[in-house]
Amino acid sequence: MRYPHDWTCRNCRSLVRDNHNCPTCGYPRSWKCTQCGDVTINSKVCETCHYPFKQERKEKHVYESASKRNNALNFLFNVKDRVTSYTDRIPGKYVIIVVLTLILIIIFSLRAPYTNLAPSIDNITLDARLRGDASTLFVGAHDDETRISNVSARIQTPLGESITLTMAETPLGWVSQENIIFNQTGEWLVRVVVTDSAGVSRTSRMNQVILTPCENNDACAQSEQCVDNGCEAFSCQYCEETTDHACVALECCKTSQCADDEVCSNNTCEEVVCKACEFPEAHTCFTYACCSHEDCASNTWCIEGVCEFISCESNQIVVNGSCITPECVSNSDCKLFESCEQNECVRLNCDLCEYAANHACLSYECCTDTMCEDDLVCGEFHRCVEPAS
User: Fold this and answer.
1) Residues 6+ apart with CB under 8 A from 147
2) Quick one: which of 174, 211, 216, 221 is 20 to 30 A from 21 by CA?
3) Sign of dihedral through CA atoms 296, 298, 302, 307?
């Protein structure tokens, strides 16, 4: 900013020469509160009553010293006199004089060009170097004599998309309220516009942020690897998957890659679950030949689902998978009034008119007289005899 040689302090109305701040009251670093009258130094809020500093709108003109303005006028009048002396010798001098006079009137009637009194922009910072980085935008803007009212930023992506950021004021500068995701590789263009309380804006130069794809695999996709600061795609073989930017073999892709008692499910070998009396084999379930000893013949025993033959001596039998000598194999091994049942001698249970003999129940000839013929009666030993005379 170019300051004038002479200017009047808006706070104490003193005349200031060639200085940024008023030497009398320190304005604008020091200012007098319009609410309570106390002087506040280096603060935007009154320390006594907390009344905010309200700066007057500045006049938009170039301050120049009186000597400079006089020199400019003298130069213009000298030019006029020389032109007039020259036109005295040529026809139509009055026309030329009128034209020059009009030019001078126009020059002095024009207002001096506006001076850009907007706050200065110190630096623009983006902490981003790689694709995929997330960063906030920092703008180091300050105000010398005017208060910053707004800071806006526009970012153009490498693909030409435009992003507008909302900036918030902090003690160190202005920071974007949201992160920027740098998801494209290439040149990002950043332009910042700072506006003061008088509505005067200053636009920064176009800042460039060049993003490289990667420095390591973390900046690349899962199916890419960082090679020479570039993300290169790679492909995996059959039955492989991408994990941490590398190809890793899957446990299985088909059942034949698993054990006999397993099947491939979701690229993982899992145990085959069979029902009772079934067993897994060749990745499926089969039924056993026997599930209990009752399913086998008398001379066999169910062992691990198979009826195994057991060889015993002629006088032995298979009991619970072992050869044992039974109490009897036939009736001849028992007493006459017993019979061999399930390898045990069991006493015969005969009726009232029966008797046990030769391992069987035999019927008596008679038990009552009615069972005898003619005039015979049932005598002793259950025989029909003639009655006694």
Assistant:
1) 44, 53, 55, 196, 197
2) 174
3) negative
CATH of span 120-211: 2.60.40.1930
Rounded Cα distance between 124 and 203, Å, is 12
- Is pTM beyond 0.70 here? no
Q: Look at residue 270 and tell me whether its pLDDT is greater than 90.
A: yes
Q: Residue 212, exposed/middle/buried by CB under 10 A (0-12, 13-18, 19+)?
A: middle
- Residues with Cβ < 8 Å from 86, sequence gap 6 or more? none
SS3 content of the chain, % helix, strand, coil (to 5): 15, 35, 50
Cβ burial 315-335 (10 Å sphere, 16+ → b, else e): eebbeeeeeeeeebeebeebe
- Give which of 363, 389, 366 is closest to 378, Cα–Cα: 366
- Which residues contact residue 120 at a Cβ distance below 8 angstroms, ignoring those fewer than 6 apart? 1, 141, 142, 144, 202
